[in-house]
Design goal:
The protein has 3 domains: 98 residues, 2-Layer Sandwich (Transcription Regulator spoIIAA); 67 residues, Phosphorylase Kinase, domain 1 (2-Layer Sandwich), CATH 3.30.200.20; 204 residues, Aminoglycoside 3'-phosphotransferase, Chain: A, domain 2. The chain is 43% helix and 23% strand. It contains 13 helices and 16 strands. Helix 5 crosses helix 10 and helix 7 packs across helix 13.
Length: 384
């Protein structure tokens, strides 16, 4: 057996290759975590066999990390090893993640692209959402768990079949049962944009009517607060302070928030909407979702609508206007007025958030925030 290691932030990753048995288990039997490391990840992607001696070492590692207030995760576990871990009950003691299925996107139908990744149709019944290179594999695992939680909560979402890999990218497979992308339907029926805007509003109302379980879903405002603080050095302290103050003015809430609820993350199946892409599911105020839609559809000059949904930017703008009218028709007028006073700021938040986990796209994201949104946000702030 060969053991290699690397450090990623506060995480130590051990990669095991070969067989872990009584002849070499002692090589793994040592103290691994220093004081500044909080997570131990054991990668079994190249390990085809684990004996009882190896299992005992995993138990000792679990005791070590627990004593140090750290965590143990065993990843890329093949079917044979996973069966052993499951039969012995170790999957209930520490986190165990199966080895992801490897796929190729060559020849697959492209559906949509976003800030974080792309969607492809695998076959008539399934699609895959692939994250871009540089997005940590744990993000796909989180999306899978969020999708399951949303399904249980009554959100009309597709079933998640699990995590896959494609080269250096990870993704999640969803059951779609020959559904059609909402964006494709809009492109086919541009004269029905008022109807589609009202339908999008109905979908958003259904989503936002659900309360988010704080034990499962993170607080979006807390995450955005950190994202804005991380902009120091990229933008002036004055602009960072302005953005932080505007965030604090958004009311606290525990609604379920998708934070990427555009028409390329909605499928239409038998005239019913099914929502996909649950990686950013959070709890917070519904205005965060409306701001995302403003970013995609409300600013034609950004080109975001055509890039994300392939819907022409001018049609996207009309869709947005009908959506806003239908969505706020059922809410107090002061909600609409508050949104309009904060529209550009709310629209910028998805881009600000994306900087944190898409370092390869940072320059483009920063330029769009600096050149398009910051001047508008300063004007909003000056207007009160």
């Amino acid at each position: 057996m060969n053991i290699s290691s690397r450090i990623e932030g506060d995480t130590l990753v051990l990669c095991l290759a070969g067989r872990l048995d009584g002849t070499n288990a002692q090589e793994l039997d040592r103290e691994w975590l220093s004081a500044d490391l909080r997570h131990l990840v054991v990668d079994l992607g190249q390990c085809e066999y684990v004996s009882s001696a190896g299992l005992r070492i995993f138990l000792r590692l679990q005791r070590e990390v627990t004593a140090k207030g750290a965590t143990l995760t065993v990843v890329n576990v093949g079917p044979v090893v996973h069966e052993v871990l499951d039969l012995t009950g170790l999957t209930k003691i520490f986190s165990v993640r199966r080895k992801a299925r490897e796929i190729s996107i060559e020849g697959l139908e492209f559906l949509s692209a976003g800030v974080c990744g792309q969607c492809f149709r695998l076959d008539a019944e399934t699609i895959v959402k692939l994250y871009n290179e540089g997005v940590a594999p744990a993000v796909a695992e989180q999306e899978k768990e969020f999708a399951r939680a949303a399904f249980v909560a009554g959100i009309p979402t597709a079933l998640s079949y699990g995590v896959v890999t494609c080269g250096n990218r990870t993704g999640v497979i969803y059951e779609m049962l020959d559904a059609q992308l909402f964006s494709a339907l809009i492109r086919q029926e541009p004269d029905s944009v008022e109807f589609h805007g009202a339908r999008l509003a109905e979908i958003a109302h259904t989503f936002h009517s659900k309360m988010a379980d704080p034990a499962i879903f993170p607080n979006l405002k807390d995450r955005l607060r950190m994202n804005i603080e991380d902009l120091r050095g990229t933008f002036s302290d004055e602009d960072v302070a302005m953005l932080g103050a505007r965030l604090e003015a958004i009311p606290d809430a525990d609604n379920l928030v998708h934070f990427d609820l555009h028409t390329s993350n909605i499928m239409i199946r038998n005239d019913e909407a099914v929502i996909i892409d649950m990686g950013d599911l959070s709890r917070g105020h519904y205005l965060f979702d409306i701001g995302l839609l403003a970013m995609v559809y409300g600013y034609e000059e950004s080109g975001s609508c055509e890039f994300v949904t392939k819907v022409p930017n001018d049609i996207g703008r009309r869709l947005y206007e009908h959506f806003i009218a239908a969505y706020f028709a059922a809410r107090p007028s002061e909600d609409f007025e508050f949104f309009r006073r904060n529209e550009a700021f709310l629209a910028s938040l998805r881009l600000i958030n994306a900087i944190a986990f898409l370092p390869l796209a940072k320059d483009n994201l920063v330029a769009k925030i600096r050149d398009l949104f910051l001047p508008l946000i300063r004007a909003e702030t000056a207007a009160g």
